[in-house]
Design brief:
With 143 residues, the protein is mainly α. It has one domain. It is built from three helices and no strands. Belongs to the USE1 family. Keywords: Coiled coil, Endoplasmic reticulum, ER-Golgi transport, Membrane, Protein transport, Transmembrane, Transmembrane helix, Transport. GO terms for molecular function: SNAP receptor activity.
Length: 143
C-alpha cells in the first residue's frame, strides 16, 4: 500500500497491519537489506580480487622473464670470468715457478758474496786509514 493512502484516515481506522506495512516499504528502498549489500559487496570484492590477481600474475610473469634474463647474463659473465681465472691461474703458476728458481739462485749468490763483502769493507777501511796516515805524515814533515 502506498504511504499516501493513510493520510486521510483517522487513527481509529488504522489497524496494526496498516502501521507495520508502510515501514518496510519506506525503509527498503532507502536501506538495502543485508543480503543485497552483501551480494553487492561480494561482487565488488570479487571484481577487485580478480583484477588484483590478474595484475599480480602479469607482474609475476614479467619478473620471471627478467629473472631468466638475469640468470642468462649471470651465467655468461661466469663463463667469461672462468676463462679469466684459468688464464690468471696459469700465469700465477708460471710466476711461482720462476720465483722459486730465483729464490734458490739468490740464496746461492748470498752465500758466495758474503766473503767478498767483508773483503770490500776491509779494503775501504784500509784506504781511509792510509789516507789519514799520509795527511798526517805530510804535515809533520813539512816543518
Amino acid at each position: 500500500m502506498p504511504p499516501t493512502d493513510d493520510l486521510l484516515t483517522s487513527p481509529a481506522d488504522l489497524t496494526s497491519a496498516s502501521l507495520t506495512s508502510p515501514l518496510p516499504t519506506l525503509i527498503s528502498p532507502l536501506f538495502p537489506t543485508a543480503t543485497k549489500s552483501t551480494a553487492i559487496a561480494s561482487g565488488v570484492f570479487l571484481e577487485n580480487s580478480k583484477a588484483r590477481h590478474e595484475a599480480m600474475s602479469e607482474q609475476l610473469a614479467q619478473m620471471a622473464v627478467q629473472l631468466r634474463k638475469n640468470a642468462q647474463n649471470f651465467s655468461e659473465k661466469l663463463a667469461e670470468d672462468k676463462s679469466l681465472v684459468e688464464e690468471t691461474q696459469t700465469k700465477l703458476d708460471s710466476n711461482f715457478g720462476m720465483m722459486q728458481k730465483e729464490r734458490v739462485r739468490l740464496r746461492d749468490h748470498r752465500g758466495k758474496s758474503g766473503s767478498t763483502t767483508c773483503l770490500v769493507i776491509f779494503a775501504v777501511v784500509a784506504v781511509v786509514v792510509t789516507f789519514i796516515f799520509m795527511v798526517a805524515l805530510i804535515r809533520l814533515t813539512r816543518r
